[in-house]
Amino acid sequence: MDIKYRLMTIEDYEQAYALWILCGNGLNDKDDSREGIEKYLKRNPTTSFVAVCDEKIVGVLLCGHDGRRGIIQHACVSPDFRRFGIGKKLVELGLDALKDEGITKVLLVAFKKNEGGNAFWESQGFTLREDLNYRNKALTELVRIDPDYTKE
Questions:
Q1: For residue range 14-63, what is the model confidence (pLDDT) as tens digits?
Q2: 41, 69, 96, 115: which has the highest count of C-beta atoms within 10 A?
Q3: Which stretch of DSSP H or E encloses residue 3?
Q4: In this structure, are residues 12 and 57 in contact, taking their beta carbons and an 8 Å threshold?
Q5: Is 105 exposed, middle or buried (0-12, 13-18, 19+ CB in 10 A)?
Q6: For residue 63, what are the contacts with CB-CB under 8 A and spacing of at least 6?
Q7: Which residues pair with 61 in a beta bridge?
Q8: Parallel, antiparallel, or unpaired: how do β-strands 144-145 and 106-108 relate?
Q9: How far from 79 is each of 67, 99, 129, CA to CA, in Å?
């Protein structure tokens, strides 16, 4: 299997979006639109990566920072390509890029129900913070694109 890794560009959007949908990433119609991702990539041009096999994107890491903290927004690997180290390599590339930009700490949010994803993040050294509450406030109406989403 010949996997190539490179920086993500807006030209990767359609394939990346399809993969995020396939993997059940929590998306919305504004932030995850082509325009939203383009704005994110312009702000963070050196920290998001894709894994490509035979010209098809099989893994994506949307990663950036605010100048103080790094954040992994969306990460996934196609189910047919899991267990080959692709996710680990994408995370390594993203973390190295953040370090190169002087970032010293990274956060991410994973759905509690995503047992496989949570096990992966733990295997990569990400610890669970039980001393925090994650809070969210939408500044505009957002339509969730997540068939398993239920308001709690």
A1: 999 999 999 988 899 999 999 999 999 999 999 999 999 999 999 999 99
A2: 41
A3: none
A4: yes
A5: exposed
A6: 44, 47, 48, 49, 70, 71, 72, 73, 75, 94, 97, 98
A7: 49, 75
A8: unpaired
A9: 33, 29, 28
Global pTM reads: 0.92
Beta strands 106-108 and 70-77 are parallel
CA neighbor of 108 nearest in space, from 88, 84, 134: 134
Which residues are CB-contacts of 92 (< 8 A; sequence separation ≥ 6)?
Answer: none
Cross-strand partners of 81 = none
For residues 23 and 76, the answer to whether their CB atoms sit within 8 Å is yes
C-alpha 79 chain-centroid distance: 15
